[in-house]
Structure formats: C-alpha cells, structure tokens
Amino acid sequence: MAEQKKIARRSFFAGLGLIAAAGAAARLAPPGAAEAAAEQPAEPEGKSYRLTEHVKKYYRTTTI
C-alpha cells in the first residue's frame, strides 16, 4: 500500500514539473507565435506533392 502512494506522489510531482515547464515555454514564446501557427494553410489530403521546408532547402542546394 505504501508503494502505491509513492508512485502517485512521484507522478504528481512529475506532472507538476511538466506543467511548470509548459508555462515557462508559453511565457517565453514570441507574442505572435500562437497566431502564426494557426494561420498556416491546411495540408492537402493524400500522398500528393508538398512544397515543404526540406524540399525548398534541396532546391536551394541544387542552384548553380
């Protein structure tokens, strides 16, 4: 019975630490970060071609 209380206490403090870290990250984020993430267009469905950042990087490396 005592072992179960220790596990519950540990998970409580671990959760508390995660919440504190998330709060600090939200506090230190740039002011427009949440709106910028929400304004991105939706990804098309299926397995079609997508112009992603790593594709753009590849295109930049192939220029002469």
Describe the structure.
With 64 residues, the protein is an all-alpha fold. The protein has helices at 2-28, 33-38, 53-61. The chain starts with a helix and ends with a helix. The longest helix is centred in the N-terminal third of the chain and has 27 residues, at 2-28. The model has no long low-confidence stretch (mean pLDDT 77).
* Helix and strand element order: HHH
Distance between the termini: 70 Å
Enumerate how many helices there are, as a single number. Answer: 3
Q: Oligomeric form of this entry?
A: single chain
* Largest sheet composition: none
Strand percentage: under 5%
Structural class: mainly alpha
The shape, in one word, is: elongated
Query: Percent of residues in helical segments?
Result: 55-70%
Low-confidence stretches: none
User: Mean pLDDT score, rounded?
Assistant: 77
Q: What would you report as the Rg, rounded to the nearest angstrom?
A: 22 Å
Total number of β-strand segments? 0
Summarize it.
With 64 residues, the chain is mainly α. 66% of the residues lie in helices and 0% in strands.
